[in-house]
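The following record pairs a protein chain with its ligand, 2-phosphoglycolic acid.
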Amino acid sequence: MQKIIAANWKMYKTRQEARETAAAVAAALNEQPTPHEVVVFAPFTAIAEVADAFAASQAQAGAQDVWPAVEGAFTGEISPRMLQDAGAVWVLTGHSERRHVLGESDELVGRKTAFALEQGLKVMLCIGEKLEERESGQLEDVLRRQLDSGLPAGGGALEGRFAVAYEPVWAIGTGKVAGPDEVLATHAVVRRLLCERLGETGNRIPILYGGSVKPANAGKLIGLDNVDGLLIGGASLDAQSFVQIIRA
Ligand code: PGA
């Protein structure tokens, strides 16, 4: 399966900063293409800049969130069609900051995922447990609940347009990367849950790891069984650091 290396820029970068970083990534990929799929989840205001900078490269632009409606009275929200118009191919749903800082429910994450897929966006659904959930033995329950509510019904058409990013909440932005044993074991659980839900197709859904991925640990992580890609926050803001991770 083709691996996916994805940047999550969160609420960083003006349009000009985004254009410069994306242009540097595109130049590096044009000089030396990668077998991986490369995606940058940019802030809404910078998606068009990133998509333009990536136009003549193998990389693609994505958005960090979406509202599950075609259009309407949803002040402050953004529709799949608006994202596509700006050049987004992918969208993230259920990022831990949306769940735990902005208070998004499992149910809303599920509606966003299903609607974005229906409207033709590729979706990367983020799941992951908090430290107290892991320590109290709830890891599998949490992942099962987030997958059950996040996966759209009738999963047949998911292949090639849906990915799961496993990001332990305690490893995001903390510098505390999950150890190889934890990543290996947890990705095996996610794979099993996907197959329980989707049958054979579950084996062909990419599972990305995210949480304090850096150039120094990316090579080891990407080599683990059932790690089909990486989702990178802090270390993706700098083009060189992101390209080093792509090449790791
Ligand atoms: P981090 O963020 O790499 O800065 O830990 C990852 C993410 O939130 O997707």
